[in-house]
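Reminder to self: tokens first, then the designed residues, so the page reads top to bottom the way the pipeline ran.
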């Protein structure tokens, strides 16, 4: 269990700091408190957008049409006109850089047909991710409804899902300024997108992610940063002003980088096949399920980590591909810090009488 208390000077009422690749909590304060999220709602909108791209249902070259409803959005906007079209790529920039409410609604309608249908998808995804303190009522965070809420912990969950599964988001969230072109019946004009994330200029390891503010939510921020192979997510909610929002996020990230150390075993070493009794084949191939990661914030010497393989001497048929053959356990100072499964890489059926005959004949033919 990682310690989640430290002397970090913050003023915001609700915060959390996690390491991205493991999801481990480094620091938290009132992280499950339900609060109005403002525009950090758009993290879920972006997550569903990238999921739809990944599945092939939409593409970055799609022409997204701005409806009357989308163009009527107030608050932070990029002034899309009714009937105006932009590529999905441009719309993502409008959301990720300038927090455009109008662009968010236009993309939601493009994906789901209506904002209402898209919001249903947002809530389904929140439930799937275990975001137990979240309920959305719009796709951009403009709502002041008491039924539109989330928590710092849940924001960290959806931020991690977005950035780990779809790192292409950083191509957008690292942009400080970029011009887009409005083409409407009134003519052509240029509009400059300016990032709402001031840490891009203030903190050199910043990679994103999303700010938000309303009178109800106050100042919110999900900040991502990367340094020396460590990726962190700091979420700040309810900050009293924008300076506190950025200051608290930077303080959390700085603390995280000062204490975090990652042990990574890529598990590329080959494993010997296991002998199989009573099978059509005499041995079964095995492989690690994947890499192993362990986050340490206690200053331990990770060079002392030991890997111990726990495998049977033999296995009995049948053998099913993908089932667990054993485990690789990791020890530090005599205590287990984690383990990963070792899986069979092939199916081996139980041998029948004809199989035994073939084996016997094969033996005499040698």
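Designed residues (366 positions):
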């Amino acid at each position: 269990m990682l310690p989640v208390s430290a002397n970090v000077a913050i003023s915001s009422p609700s915060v959390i700091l996690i390491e991205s690749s493991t999801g481990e909590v480094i620091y938290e304060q009132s992280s499950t408190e339900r609060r109005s999220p403002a525009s950090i709602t758009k993290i879920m909108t972006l997550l569903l957008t990238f999921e739809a791209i990944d599945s092939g249902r939409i593409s970055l070259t799609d022409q997204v049409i701005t409806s009357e409803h989308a163009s009527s959005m107030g608050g932070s906007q990029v002034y899309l006109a009714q009937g105006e079209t932009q590529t999905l790529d441009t719309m993502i920039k409008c959301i990720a850089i300038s927090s455009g409410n109008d662009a968010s609604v236009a993309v939601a309608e493009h994906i789901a047909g209506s904002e209402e249908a898209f919001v249903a998808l947002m809530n389904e995804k929140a439930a799937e991710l275990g975001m137990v303190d979240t309920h959305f009522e719009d796709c951009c965070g403009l709502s002041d409804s008491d039924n539109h809420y989330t928590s710092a912990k849940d924001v960290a969950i959806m931020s991690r899902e977005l950035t780990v599964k779809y790192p292409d988001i950083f191509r957008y969230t690292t942009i400080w300024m970029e011009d887009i072109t409005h083409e409407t019946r009134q003519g052509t004009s240029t509009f400059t997108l300016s990032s709402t994330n001031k840490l891009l200029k203030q903190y050199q390891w910043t990679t994103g992610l999303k700010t938000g503010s309303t009178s109800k939510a106050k100042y919110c921020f999900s900040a991502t940063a990367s340094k020396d192979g460590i990726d962190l997510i700091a979420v700040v909610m309810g900050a009293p002003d924008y300076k506190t929002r950025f200051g608290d996020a930077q303080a959390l990230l700085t603390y995280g980088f000062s204490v975090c150390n990652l042990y990574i075993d890529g598990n590329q070493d080959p494993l010997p096949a296991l002998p199989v009794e009573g099978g059509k084949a005499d041995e079964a191939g095995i492989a690690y399920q994947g890499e192993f990661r362990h986050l340490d914030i206690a200053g331990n010497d990770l060079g002392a980590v030991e890997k111990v393989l726990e495998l049977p001497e033999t296995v009995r048929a049948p053998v099913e591909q993908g089932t667990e053959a054993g485990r690789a356990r990791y020890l530090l100072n005599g205590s287990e810090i984690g383990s990963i499964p070792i899986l069979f890489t092939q199916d081996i059926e139980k041998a029948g009488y004809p199989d035994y005959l073939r084996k016997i004949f094969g033996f005499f033919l040698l």
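The chain is about 30% helix and 30% strand.
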